[in-house]
Model the fold of this input.
Amino acid sequence: MRILFSCRPAYGHLFPLIPLARAAKSAGHDVVFATGRGFVDQVRDLGFPVHPAGMSVGEAETEARRRHGDAEIVTLMITMFADVLPRATVADLARLLPLLEPDLVVYEMSDVGAAKAARDAGIPFVSHVIGRSMPAAIAELAAPEMEWLWDGAVPANPMLGDTAIDLWPDTVRDPEVARVPVVLRQRPVPFDLDVPMPALGSGKPLVYLTLGTVQFGATGVLRAAIDGLARLPVDVLVALGPGDPAQLGEVPESVHVTGFVPQAKVLERASLVVHHGGTGTVLGTLAAGLPQLVLPQGADQFVNADVLAEKGAGRKLVGEEITADAVAGAAGHLLDDPAARNVAAKVAEEIAGLPEPAAVVEQLEKLT
Done:
């Protein structure tokens, strides 16, 4: 087969697709990507042919604000994800698909314009989960704005379609994804850039702190977390991703600040993860059987934080709750209390039992 993977130009939208794309390539299939211009080089560096298509979330937000000014965030988000972003993707893929002639299109769940372009071209398509689906109330508001995508034949889920690849294990599963008629379960396999493991010489417990590849600039949150964690008898590794470590200024001796890290290897060494609640970090931490303290900053991170706290796999601090004192208290509790670790260990077993990407490739072959 020739499989086209389509995604937004952002690390959190691209990286979840890489394990499946590599498995498809290893199985002998021709794999090609379509993404925004800002990420063409990153995809090419990972060894895949890539074509520019669509636009970035930031560009879409600019257009939404041009239309609506200081409207409520829900109005802006619906305009972005139900109109501006998918129309840009549809326009580019309508020209690209006849040239590439893929047998299948796999799109990350927010890139629903790729689903319309595929359907218009008569090509099978499958959504790939990268996070949580829209809350029901927002999905209801967005539904009328998304009708143009489906030409009157709306699938079971207007973002996910009728067939989805699901990375969530049962304990923390997204119920909306579970309702899609055809669900291909897949183990959330970690993917990291080829970067060195930071030197961590101390024998003290390691706390891994990150706000991901979007909210890394939330310096106030990072400083509160660093100041709180520095009070504990631990070493702290802060990963800023594309951020500049100099933005944090001086940090305590027990704190090491860097850019990208091989997160899977870090999790093997860590005792606790303090992070923003992005799905990749949530699932990676659960797969490692570790407790987590979530400091959500946007998007579906608040839902992830709620689910982890509800299931007992960690704790959350939100907004003004994020102080050095609160971080020190919550992190200290999670380091000493085995309850969250036991829940995480149970979920780690669920994750280990999910099918590998290679098995999902075999299922995709049957779909075409």
